[in-house]
Amino acid sequence: MTLNSLMDSFQGDDDKKSWAHFQERIAKAPEQVLRYYRNSNSKPTWPVLSGRPSKDDIPKCIYCGGSMCCEFQILPQLLYYFGVENEVNSLDWASIVVYACEASCEASLPYKHEYARVQLYSPSACPIV
Ligand SMILES: [Zn+2]
Fold first, then answer.
1. 21 C-alpha vs ligand 1 centroid, how far in Å?
2. What is the pLDDT of residues 72-83, one digit of tens each?
């Protein structure tokens, strides 16, 4: 699978424009597979417009009830390193963004419940927890 073949599966000019912007950002470090956001005001760079969550889509922290912010983003380039072929029903995503508590509460817990948002290339996105 190549990034250009992914591009062919996009629908709509807005998504193509968004993808071009995404490519431009990623081209600065083309081998990156993960983007880490240190600043809680950071916004993920979504590859396509469709399937982006609105602020209301992001749940509140289950421990303190506070807002969650994006912590890191897994890029579709990782699929290349997994050796995933471009097949129907194969593993595929445009982006996976993981959100964590903005206040970093309950730091003593070894494992914490976070929220992952998966953006697919189709117009729909499915949230998983
Ligand atoms: Zn919290």
1. 32
2. 999 988 888 888
